Amino acid sequence: MTIRDLLRNAFSNLRRRKLRSFLTIFAVVIGAALVSLLVSLGVGAQEFLTAQIRATMPPDVLMVGSNPNAFQIGFGAMGFGGSPEEITDDEGSPYSLAPLTPQEIESVRALEHVERVDPYIMVSADSVRLQNSEKRFRTQLTALPDYLITSKELVAGRYLNDDSQGECIIANQYLESFNFDRAEDALGQEVVIQVGQITSFIGLPTKTKDYTFEIVGVAEKTLSSTQIMISIEDGKEIARFWANEPELYTDEVPPAILQVKVEDSQYADQVAEAVEDLDLGALTSADVLGLVGDIFTIIQAVLSVFGLIALGVASLGIINTLIMAIYERTREIGVMKAVGASQGTVRRLFTTEGAAIGFLGGVIGVAIGYGLGFIINQVSHSTFLADFETFNISVFPWWLIVGVIALSTLIALLAALYPAHRASRLDPIEALRYE
Amino acid sequence: MIELRNVWRLYRMGDETINALAGIDLEISQGEFISIVGPSGSGKSTLLNIIGGLDSPTTGTVVVDGQNLSKASDRELSLYRNKKVGFVFQTFNLQPTYTALENVALPLVFAKVPLRKRNEIARDTLETVELAERLGHTPGQLSGGERQRVAIARALVNDPRILLADEPTGNLDSRTSELIVELLQRLSKERGITMLLVTHEMMIAEHANRVIHMLDGQIARSTERK
Description:
Strand content of chain A: 5-15%
Low-confidence stretches of chain B: none
Distance between the termini of chain B: 20 Å
CATH superfamily of chain B: P-loop containing nucleotide triphosphate hydrolases
CATH class of chain B: Alpha Beta
Number of helices of chain B: 7
Mean pLDDT of chain B: 91
Order of helices and strands of chain A: HHEHHEEEHEEHHEEEHEHEHHHHH
Oligomer: heterodimer
Number of strands of chain B: 10
């Protein structure tokens, strides 16, 4: 019997018992819709987080730390999963970082495919306010090399370059805080950023200093809602006050962490290995994304369990339907055998019918899951996610659609194996006499 | 053509063992028209089923066209049933949801003949049983005689060497029965098909060249007629 005829027979049998076929398929639909919708939510969250990580850490940039364990990430380092790691004397605490030596910085700079090396500037500010206003807001001050600043999208204004002094780019959310109707209105305005010294003792008055910046750009809306970006040189100056160390980021007190840009993202792993050969720590965006991927794989697996349980229950329905069909079609099976159907052919007839139930259920289920996901996206965009038009909670990549349909078909086919075996073993003479 | 040597077929029914066939020796040549008669339980149907490859002998050998059926696998037997034999049953055994054309084409489905080709063959075959104008009807819309003619067309559609008919007129009135047997007789003569006809009506049996009388699983007597 050809595959075409097997399919024709399977679908015409499903049409013969419409209500029963519908109910059996419906159970598969629920399972497939659940699996696809839940996984699509996981995919959406992962895509969103991945995009955020990419924005702060492009694939052609890596972080270099003075300690080989500086960037150990993963479940082992977080303290769950693997056994506690041994600390050898010369390494100290894995999370404390001594400054790099100028020689180490030079040898990183000298590595093949390294384009430029910048210190990773750590700064912190207490508050930000408009020049002629007393309203102060929280802020996250970030000093970045110009290639990282230009990787962000602006809604107004221009980027900074490395020589910029006293210029900043503000997060989109500040427009509302500062009462600007349009992003263009913010350009040219001045903000005052107050920095408190880190070495202040609790209870004693904090030494603070005000820095004035002109707003030259407004960033697109992202999760970094309080970010103010300034140039590396301005950052160095603020960091020196903040840390109360006038020699910070000079050869006297070199940085502990470097931002290394490579010529192309394809060299990132290669450079990371070379850095580790220098007995330093390296972190690429692939490392971070890998960890995020691991976490989401687990989340998606847990979410899909609910759908898989539903599919498992649906497979019982398929077994029941097909066993009923054997009783109904006993004579028919007898005739088929008499005119030349082998045991294998009868088995294939029933497994194809089961697979057809799974396939139809999978297709309808994914369509319903997709529809629900679409509704969730619409509702979320008009309510709590109004600020993130590009972010969809429910995302259906092609592999999810194909995968869920294939999975339902496979589970249904497996459920059909036992009924198919029983049907194939019917004695044709008994079957032909069956009333 | 067909050769049975010391064929036994035993059934177990509770504690009892029933000898459905008890040492059958039989030779049938190509194109013979044979009637098998005898009381119920005499083993007529079992003999037919064994020759048709639906049942296997407990002991003994069955050779058809050089093929030893007693040693054949399920695959070989299903191929044999598909290509070499056609079955006609007392209760017609047509698929009620299929049209006459689809019923006739069923054996071709298992022979992997493509749809267009098998509809063509099935239409031609329905013509030989004079039912060309009823091919779109389902069995429920046909009379008993018409149904049996559809069943005969189904048995013929693969151009078999042997046609096995188990009480084909059992559910038909005498006039229709006569027409059906005449049809079988004509097919046997025109196409050289070996015909085995199980019946308990002597009127029907007398159309054959040879009448085999069975009793208690054995051939009691065999009469040749010309």
